Amino acid sequence: MHEQLQRLRDDAERVVDPDMWSYLNRGSGDQRTVTEAHDAWDRYRLRPRVLRDVSHVSTELPLFGGVWRTPIGIAPTAFHAVLHPEGEVATATGAAAAGAPMVLSSRSTRRIEDVAAAVDGPWWFQVYLMRERAITAALIERAAAAGATAMVLTADTPYVGHRARTPALARPLPLGDDQALINVRDHFPEGVEDYWELIDQRADLSLGDIAWVADVCELPVIVKGVLRGDEALACIDAGADAIWVSNHGGRQLDRAISTAAALPDVVTAVGDSVPVIVDGGVRDGFDALTALALGASAVMLGRPVMWALAAEGADGVAGILDELTGELRHAMGLAGAACLGDLDPSLVSGR
Ligand SMILES: Cc1cc2nc3c(=O)[nH]c(=O)nc-3n(C[C@H](O)[C@H](O)[C@H](O)COP(=O)(O)O)c2cc1C
């Protein structure tokens, strides 16, 4: 793990509510998948090229009409108001300062429109298909109207994974309904009492829902939570515009394979047809370099951003994105790659 990230994690642990700390860090079940995530990247080794002109190394990423200064971005994570008073607005401010891709969670504790204003550039919205479809549709429409340029449909959460001491939804966290329900409450049907039931994830989501999301907003749909090449192809056949390799940070199916192990299979199946994004256990610039060389277009961070947010707010988020990007840029130079397009699987050895 990058030194500064370890420091931010330690600082965050001192200030974050213990229930939130557990919610944030734990994986599901016996924690096999969460524990293996970083080590799986660390098992790869690099095969550098030499005598390439690397006097200028660019980490610039063009994707879905947006251009970012770094391919290291922010995965969607829930309930940032428990970590910092400005919540997702602070996260977005950090992303904007670093020129990094940002994905806003459906479980945002700040209004979608306020977060969009802080990003000040392209951003994506993460969609949980909620039991009440009309609420999901309303959130997608609002995000699109606020400037989201793609939708990220989370596919790996028909049920929330079993995580000891951690809640399925926000109730046991130190989070009032005013924050937890800030985006959904306007869309509740009249007279409903158990509104938490309405916004729980649907267990019947299917391949057809990719087209449903696209119909609601007419934006590219990225399917998040894919770990197999054949599944990636099925999603693409059903209309997916990108595949996001993820095991939800080890929070869903315990013993699911690491994303580091899954990525090559997905990239091989998908070829050049759509971009592939990856997250899970990425903790330094070398993990990011490995993922990009194996064929990912962008590499996303979940917990690291939450630690940075809790410890130092927007500056912490921007700082850790800058640090990891700097480490990536330096490693690219030493590997003989002047831009992301110079990265390919031949730079990586073993598993
Ligand atoms: C506390 C927490 C909350 C999360 N909330 C969401 C969410 O609301 N939507 C979603 O698609 N994924 C969510 N995720 C999964 C992340 O998007 C991402 O897949 C994962 O955190 C990446 O692994 P990492 O934490 O090791 O970087 C969450 C993860 C954590 C740790």
TrEMBL record:
Q: Which InterPro entries match?
A: Aldolase_TIM (IPR013785), Alpha-hydoxy_acid_DH_FMN (IPR012133), FMN-dep_DH (IPR000262), FMN_HAD (IPR037396), FMN_hydac_DH_AS (IPR008259)
The keyword Flavoprotein is annotated on this UniProt entry: yes
Name the enzyme group at the top EC level.
Answer: oxidoreductase
EC identifiers of the protein:
1.1.3.46
Residue positions annotated to bind glyoxylate are: Y23, Y128, R163, H248, R251
Q: Which organism is it from?
A: Flexivirga oryzae
Record keywords: Ribonucleoprotein included? no
Q: Which domain of life is it from?
A: Bacteria
Chain positions recorded as FMN binding sites:
76-78, 105, 126, 154, 224, 246, 279-283, 302-303
Name the protein family.
Belongs to the FMN-dependent alpha-hydroxy acid dehydrogenase family.
Domain FMN hydroxy acid dehydrogenase as annotated: residue spans: 1-351
Q: Where is the active site?
A: H248
Cofactor(s), by name: FMN
Record's keyword terms, sorted? Flavoprotein, FMN, Oxidoreductase
One Pfam family, short name: FMN_dh
A molecular-function term among this protein's GO annotations: FMN binding
Please state what the protein is called.
4-hydroxymandelate oxidase
